[in-house]
Structure formats: C-alpha cells, structure tokens
Amino acid sequence: MKISIISVGKLKEKYLKQGIEEYIKRMGPYAKVDIQEVSDEKAPENLSEAQMEEVKQKEGERILSKIGADTYVITLEIEGKMITSEKLAEQLDQLATYGNSKIAFVIGGSLGISEDVQKRSDFALSFSKMTFPHQMMRLMLLEQVYRAFRIMRGEPYHK
C-alpha cells in the first residue's frame, strides 16, 4: 500500500519533523509513505470571503495536481465524519482488499480546503470539532495510520 500525505505549507518545527520521521520509519513494514508539501498562498491577515475562497482555490489546484486518477482520497475536514481508530483500520483494510492500494490523505491550509478538493474526496475524515494547526495534523494523522496498521495486523497498540 502506498500512502501519501498531501499538505499545504512547509513544516518548520523541528519537534514535529522528528515525530513525523519516527512514524514514517515505523510504517516501513506496513506501507510506503510519502509526504508532499504544496506551497501555501500568501495572504493578508484580514480577508474577505471572496479572498478566502480565492486562497483556498489556489491551494486546492496545487493539491489536486498531486493526486492521481487511481488514488483514493481522504480529506481531513472539521465537518467530516468522526470515526474510531478501529474503524479507520477497518476502512484501510477494506480499501487494500478491494484494490485501492494508493491512498492520499489531504490536509488543507489554515483556511481549510477548496470545494474542488472536497468534490474529489472519497471520504471526509474529522479528528475533532476543534481546530488544530495543520502542521501538527501531519503527526497526528501518521500516528493514527500507524495505529490502524497495527490494529489490522492484530499487533499490540496503546489504547
């Protein structure tokens, strides 16, 4: 299985980079993982609704350019579906069983993801109704994907 994490913006925090590297290493026996960063759109602090949509649209175009036609897309969205770690494991297992070996998780920028990216999504996943820094979501997502593979294989994991 090939897992891509497509994320808006550069990761600068050393502690997050270290955590991400650790989980990518742990994922080695289960799946090939790659992280693709797309640049975030520079924008002033106070944006109108139209300007916000324009920023999301430009970032969305960059995201979509990284997604292949044969890729199953899971977007991280506040309004997505909240599921358990076990349910994520079950879903990834079913995808692999039915030939979806390429999965892309999409983490939008600080304003979220564009409507076009939402339309391309096969599943909208929510970690919480709370807002998290999109840079931190990479680490949280990788931990959950790693946990899902451990669950699928019947290997121990912390509850």
Descriptive report:
The protein has 159 residues and is an alpha/beta fold. It has one domain: Alpha/beta knot, CATH 3.40.1280. It contains five helices and five strands, in the order βαβαβαβαβα. The protein has helices at 14-27, 49-64, 85-97, 115-120, 134-152, and strands at residues 2-8, 32-38, 72-81, 102-107, 123-125. Strands 2-1-4-3-5 form a five-stranded parallel β-sheet. Strand 3 (72-81), helix 3 and strand 4 form a beta-alpha-beta unit. Helix 1 (14-27) runs parallel beside helix 5 and helix 3 (85-97) packs across helix 5. The model has no long low-confidence stretch (mean pLDDT 93). Belongs to the RNA methyltransferase RlmH family. It is found in: Cytoplasm. Specifically methylates the pseudouridine at position 1915 (m3Psi1915) in 23S rRNA.
Please give the structural blueprint.
Elements: E1 2-8, H1 14-27, E2 32-38, H2 49-64, E3 72-81, H3 85-97, E4 102-107, H4 115-120, E5 123-125, H5 134-152
Parallel strand pairs: 1-2, 1-4, 3-4, 3-5
- Which band does the percent of strand residues land in? 15-25%
The CATH architecture name reads: 3-Layer(aba) Sandwich
**Low-confidence runs (pLDDT<50, min 5 residues)?**
none
As for the number of domains, it is 1
Query: Terminal Cα separation, in Å?
Result: 25 Å
CATH topology: Alpha/beta knot
Biggest sheet, spatial arrangement of strands: 2-1-4-3-5
The geometry reads as globular
Major sheet size, sense and barrel closure: 5 strands, parallel
Note the run of SSEs as H and E.
EHEHEHEHEH
Using DSSP, what is the number of strands? Answer: 5
Count of runs of 4 or more consecutive helical residues: 5
Q: What's the mean pLDDT score?
A: 93
Q: What's the CATH H-level homologous superfamily?
A: SPOUT methyltransferase, trefoil knot domain
SS content category:
alpha/beta
Whole-angstrom Rg: 15 Å
